[in-house]
Amino acid sequence: MILDILEGNTTHPSANDIHKTVVTKYPTTSFSTVYNTLEMLTNVGELDKICILGNVIKYEPNTDPHAHLLCKKCNRIIDIFEPYYAKPSIRKIKQFPHTIEKVQEFLYCTCASCLKGRQGKKLA
Amino acid sequence: MILDILEGNTTHPSANDIHKTVVTKYPTTSFSTVYNTLEMLTNVGELDKICILGNVIKYEPNTDPHAHLLCKKCNRIIDIFEPYYAKPSIRKIKQFPHTIEKVQEFLYCTCASCLKGRQGKKLA
DNA sequence: TTGTAAATAAGAATCATTGCCAATTATGTT
DNA sequence: AACATAATTGGCAATGATTCTTATTTACAA
User: Fold this and answer.
1) Closest partner residue to A57 among B53, B102, B115, by Cβ?
2) Across residues B85-101, what is the average pLDDT?
3) Residue ranges of domains in chain B, CATH in brackets
4) Of B52, B93, B109, which is closest to A101 when you measure between CB atoms?
């Protein structure tokens, strides 16, 4: 069910968000199980964790390389695939050849909606 | 004193690390003061916060654009200025013109020392 | 000196995450 | 089916980084 919740989900939910959804169907589900499952799914490569400046960990079902745009006004996280994202050109780092397994790129900005003064409620 | 500790420091210390150093000279210094000072220095642009996947916040005195290499074996954070780092080409993002204020890039890897089997103690 | 504002210390509060363990469930074997 | 064993789960306590609160101290100005 956790995979179903995350499949195609672009809202980057936290463990707490996911738990809230799961308990509507399986009311006794504990946080342990949610965290264990998310950890397992991350380890097998189904999910990525993203964490912005010490806030809660969010779970990203789209593991294709892409950047995340972080709006300081509304706290929303927006996936950016093109054209900013720097595709890993690993060989260029002579000190660390062939060892980079993952790249995370965070772009701090004011999002388009907030720029136009029509952003929604600020997320937690 | 906190600025002095961080000046030229490439170890990316945490608030706790900084507090430990400060109390050797000013034994009554509280965490409140350390956190308040770090927050203030961040707000005036002297420091950047960096946070890796839910670990503690580390403080980076070098605010020049650069990437961070994160070794999974020894947990060390290494500054990378060239040639990987994608310099912000902000104008290329049509959806978000002229609004990107900061870019953070994290490269997950095994560092050169660990590759050669001579890494130091794993950091906390 | 005296009043007022700012900074600080101390510790409690918060809260996401992890750890622990007993209870439950699944799996495999006769 | 009955049993043994392993894996998963639920409940909740523990952890620990960060924030909050409040009284106290310090800095500054009139």
Assistant:
1) B53
2) 57
3) 1-62 (1.10.10.10), 64-124 (3.30.1490.190)
4) B109
